[in-house]
Specification:
Layout: H1 6-24, H2 33-47, H3 55-87, H4 102-105, H5 114-133, H6 137-156, H7 165-170, H8 172-183, H9 192-207, E1 212-214, E2 219-221, H10 224-245, H11 250-257, H12 259-279, H13 284-309
Antiparallel strand pairs: 1-2
Length: 322
């Protein structure tokens, strides 16, 4: 069993909470918080990336850990979608989803966060190809930049490619840098104090640069250089911040260990909760905060049960479970 790195789990937990807050509508008045949530997730995914074994083994692991959970949750989500359209008055006006072909016709899924899994599947394939293409890391880095540049241009001109492939392209460099951070043990070189100092410096540098990142819909504003800088440096800053200030948090670590389950289910859980609270005249920020807390509690309570009895739902198999 592999030993878990606590501050990495904590960083994943922070990202997951930020994503849930953004979706549910909990106000977070922290500059660049939205930019950090998904870019850091991609960097942390790259941190655990490995190309050991042949392509067949790589694809088997990729399918088991990412594609199968995506397909299961996607089909289940649209079963709920069609039931809602059939039996709930005004249901269609509550969502931008159109039908089960949304993954090839538009970016708005009924279970919106599933775009991340699909993008991650493509990113892993692309990065595998980049690393196999050349052993020279300078060439690999250039290829990663070119992929991200392609994603940036597609987003800039509002060109969507089916199955979230354009979103995947835009995050290749962040993912690859995460892979390098692990390969050269960069994060491990700094103690907690040094990590905290660098985290603060990196964060301040990012909030002073104009530009915005909205990876969830593959849209950016600002120059390409600014987008690259913010996505990379802000992600490292959040990880170092977790190492320095929050590595003790068992709650955040638990959330980080169960991000697959929370990512795939919170969107389905919070909507009915929000509607029930609306019926009881709970409005505004109070509605959002209560919805967030109830959703988080339900996700966390069910996560250990799912991992124990239905591990494939969260991408766990006997050889990957840890």
């Amino acid at each position: 069993m592999k030993e878990r790195i606590t501050y990495i789990d904590v960083a994943k937990g922070i990202c997951m909470l930020l994503i849930m807050c953004a979706h549910i509508g909990v106000p977070i008045d922290i500059p660049r918080a939205h930019a950090a949530q998904t870019t850091t997730f991609f960097m942390l995914s790259g941190y655990f990336f490995s190309i050991k074994g042949n392509f067949k083994d790589f694809m088997k692991k990729n399918v088991n850990s990412i594609l199968i959970p995506f397909v299961i949750f996607y089909l289940f989500s649209y079963a709920l979608f069609y039931l809602g359209k059939r039996f709930v008055p005004g249901f269609a006006s509550m969502t931008a989803a159109k039908g089960i072909l949304d993954c090839v016709t538009q970016k708005q899924y009924f279970n919106g966060p599933l775009w991340f899994l699909l993008s991650l599947f493509w990113i892993r394939l692309i990065t595998y190809g980049i690393i196999k293409c050349s052993k020279n890391e300078i060439i690999q880095f250039v290829l990663a930049i070119l992929c991200t540049g392609g994603g940036y241009l597609l987003g800039h001109y509002h060109i969507d490619i089916p199955l979230s492939f354009d979103s995947a392209l835009s995050a290749v460099l962040v993912f690859y840098v995460g892979y390098l951070l692990k390969k050269y043990s960069v994060l491990e070189r700094y103690n907690k104090v040094e990590s905290g100092i660098f985290a603060i410096i990196f964060y301040i540098s990012c909030i002073t640069i104009p530009g915005a990142i909205e990876n969830s819909i593959n849209r950016f504003s600002g120059s390409f250089v600014a987008v690259i800088y913010i996505s990379l440096v802000l992600s490292v800053a959040l990880i170092l911040f977790s190492k320095c200030f929050l590595s003790w948090s068992k709650v955040l670590s638990f959330i980080g260990r169960n991000t697959m389950w929370l990512m795939c289910t919170h969107h389905l859980i919070y909507r009915p909760i929000k509607l029930v609270l609306d019926r009881f005249a709970v409005k505004g920020n109070l509605n959002a905060i209560l919805t967030f807390l109830i959703t988080l509690a339900l996700c966390c309570l069910t996560a250990p049960i799912v991992e124990k009895y239905l591990p494939r739902l969260v991408g766990k198999t006997p050889e990957t479970k840890s």
